[in-house]
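--- STAGE predict ---
source: upstream dedup step, 1 unique chain passed
mode: sequence only
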Amino acid sequence: MKRTIRVLHLFDSTIGWDQRLALEQLLARLPAERYEQRLVSLGSLSGEAARIDAPVRVVPRRLGWDVLFAPALRQLVRHLEADIVHTWSRRATGVAVSTGQVRVPIVASVFDSALADAYAKRFRAGGRAASIAAICATELVRRRLVERGVHPDDAVLVRPGLDFATINRTAKSDLRARLGLGREMAVMLASQPATRGGGQFSAFWATAVRSFLEPNACLVLPGCSREVSRLRRLAGALQQPEVLILPGDGYRYEELIAVADAMLLPAVTETSVTAIAWAMAAGVPIIASVTRATTELLTHNHNAFLIKPDAPRRLAMRFADAIGKRRQWSKQTEIARCQAYDMFSLHRCIAQTQRVYENVLDARPLSDGI
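--- STAGE serialize ---
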């Protein structure tokens, strides 16, 4: 009989909605008779970390130095008799590596290719003897980690899993009405979190420009951040506050996708691949700027409408024009939906993560069986 594997999930308040969602899927779907899962947060719970509906142990922050988390974490790993520490943020990975004396394998889930440098430094700090493995959400993430010194055998591609039942249930719910969005409105959704490089500024301008031709056009801008506050002030200064819908942290991003009429991703840096995957599965037209992350999944006029990056206002004008054509894209959205079923199977994601755990513990090649 196989023994129980004890997994300690380690994160902090910087995790995004995509990391929180992937963690929740493991909590719900890993077989309880085989896996014992415990959650530990570095510092107080806030943001997406506070949304996790499960008991969480909090390691208090001391003097503002991450390295001071290590002794408490080392003691906790021993107390819980953890077999694996699964980290969900850059900070958590660094703290886990610094525990040093506890020879417990570390599995790090990496979603953002822009953080490849930071993760690679933490991997190199631990060395190969420390048994650190990366679960990469995209091939781009994996490639960048390898380019920055992570051994190819220590990084494996496991694409995010989608819960199509959640998408269908949300699409049939009254969420759109609760947000004050009538059926006649053209609802655009921006990515989360809102940042200067995330393209939400261009998404706002595109929707504002389009609203002159389509008065009911609006942009849903989820979450709370400095960029959200900046865009709210801008909308007020332009006397177009009705263009922005600001749900704050009151709704989950994966729910908002299911009630949108189009997703706008005019990012100049890399964007959330999980958001793209959920939009594909929900049959929501995707209008995106060309980045390495978007082109790994999207092809112009095949399953999305792609626009070359440009200055924010010129980019916004091109997006505004594309918004008006979104109803012509039924073929593209159907192709995208079919691809999502094939590429982002939740069952396969869970099974592959289990395989990673077993490979790490049995000292097999990380990609064996994946």
